[in-house]
Amino acid sequence: MATAQSPLATPPARTAESWKGLFDTVYECDKVVSDIEGQLPKGLVGTLYRNGPGTHDWTESFFDGDGMIRAIRIGEDGSVRYQAKYVETEKYRKERAANKQLYRLAGTNRPGGMLANMFRPPAHEANTSVIHMADRIWALEEGGHPYEMDPETMTTGEMTDFGGKLHARTAFSAHPHFDPDTGDCFGFGMHFGAKQALKLFRVDPSARLHHIGEIPISGAGFVHDYALSKQWMAFFIPPMIPSMSKILFGTGTFFNSLNWEPERGLKIVLMRRSGGEPIYLEDEACLAGHVIGAHDVGGELIVDLCRQPEWKCMGEPAANFRTSDWAGYGLGGVCRYRIDPAAGTVKKEELCELPAEFPRIDSRREGVGARYGYFAANTRAGEGGWFRGVLKLDMETGATDLFDHGETKAAHESVFVPRPASAGGTGEEDDGWLIGFVHDGLKSETDVAIIDARRVADGPVCTLRLRENAGITFHGTWVPAA
Ligand SMILES: [Fe+2]
Q1: For residue range 169-226, what is the model confidence (pLDDT) as tens digits?
Q2: Most buried pick, 130, 313, 320, 399, via CB within 10 A?
Q3: What CA–CA distance (Å, rounded) separates 439 from 239?
Q4: How much distance in Å is there from the Cα of 8 to the middle of ligand 1?
Q5: What is the Cα–Cα distance from 130 to 69, expressed in whole angstroms?
């Protein structure tokens, strides 16, 4: 006699069903997490902050949506708490009050056509990353200034221009990098205006901003991340050229006004951390995505990054995230660039062909060379769809250590947390844990996976089941308990 099958007995094939719950609306929350599988590692005490859009109610791109900070707080006593709170930007407050879309976004125009969008820049949603600096957390998005937030209550404070030092039309990118020796935060922002430029700056541990220099760029549409070594700040500017008339006159969104023009090549621009004149180099076109790390060897600058063949890999599913099957747009892998600024040469080598993104390193190796990179990844070259696994790559040997969460799961960025000396930590690179969100496509709930960084393929040593959907998050940070 045939028996009835549970609808969950046969998981769906790996299609958008596996990750579409990432884009559901997330509700503010403050709860104890009691469903814990495995043992919390001794010494893992602190808070994981994550940022990403909390709602896609009226967005057409998954990059759009109000920023929301999620916090996982792990106490000395083994208690776990999950908090989720929106960043109360000006845009958030006004739209919530009106209960309708008021603002134009980077990938979503306002209703009302051309007249409703003409000469309106995309709104600042503070939805991309969160850093910890000067006893505050800061919600970042590359279109505007940082929003300060209280690290405990996550109450939104002011949008800061650092005492007037950051021009109103100069943004603060979502990817600053910290010097682990000094605590200085090196960052950049796109300056919008007649003379478009990248402005470079340093924010000291007291949150005072110091200008380093500027790099004039014309026509560039997308500079998301950069590389920091002890000597250099290096920018990889892809040939994504915006149609300014479509943007200005409101006939397109910012994202769908970007044209991929590979004949223009990749522009690599270096500036010393101490300032001075920029140095310009070129290489074949690619979309240099997130930077893994950088370091100096002799006169050379070594940069490891996630390299995509073109914008369509991300642009198509980003623009059509509700309908795209994503499968046809497998991402590229990991690449090392060797740049000799004196000779003006660029050499590159592929380090890994697995689709890998959202890289992290042991932050103690920032600027001096990390051997290991940690990624959200897929399991074979060319595999599309949202990332299903966690990858460690030994960038010296090319060895991979991969854990596959499964075809119905979607892994976010995993943050490396060093094992503290009080828990037997050696201080060596890779001695620690990876902590990251994993979306369960069957339940549409979020788990927090904790993996021993030295045994990634063994899978989580501990899983915190939120019994909530925490939605999509892009970037975050770990703050150890004081
Ligand atoms: Fe990013």
Answers
A1: 999 999 999 999 999 999 999 998 878 899 999 999 999 999 999 999 887 778 999 9
A2: 130
A3: 33
A4: 34
A5: 8
Q: Is 232 exposed, middle or buried (0-12, 13-18, 19+ CB in 10 A)?
A: buried
Q: Identify whether the C-beta of residue 222 lies closer than 8 Å to the C-beta of residue 238.
A: yes
* Selection from 171, 94, 172, 77 nearest residue 130 by Cα: 172
* CA 174 / ligand 1 centre spacing (Å): 7
pLDDT digits (tens, 9 = 90+) for 56-112: 888 888 899 999 999 999 999 999 999 999 999 999 999 999 999 999 998 999 999
3-state DSSP percent of the chain in helix, strand and coil, to 5? 10, 40, 50
Output the CA angle 399-40-80, nearest 5 degrees.
125
Ligand 1 centroid to Cα of residue 225, in Å, is: 7
* Alpha helices by DSSP H, 88-189: 90-98, 113-117
Q: Is residue 393 part of a domain?
A: yes
Number of domains in the chain: 1
Q: Give residue 110's domain range.
A: 21-193+287-480
Does 147 fall in a domain?
Answer: yes
Q: Say how many Å lie between the CA of residue 171 and the centre of ligand 1.
A: 15
- Overall average pLDDT of the 40-46 stretch: 97
358 C-alpha to ligand 1 centroid (Å): 7
Is 456 a domain residue?
yes
The size of the chain, in residues, is 482
pTM over 0.90: yes
* Residue 295 belongs to some domain of the structure: yes
CA 128 – ligand 1 centroid, Å = 7
CA of 298 to the centre of ligand 1 (A): 29
Q: Measure 1 CA to ligand 1 centroid, in angstroms.
A: 54
- CA 476 to ligand 1 centroid distance, Å: 10
Sheet of 445-452, strands arranged across? 35-38, 462-465, 445-452, 432-440, 409-418
Sheet holding 177-178, edge to edge: 177-178, 185-191, 197-203, 209-216
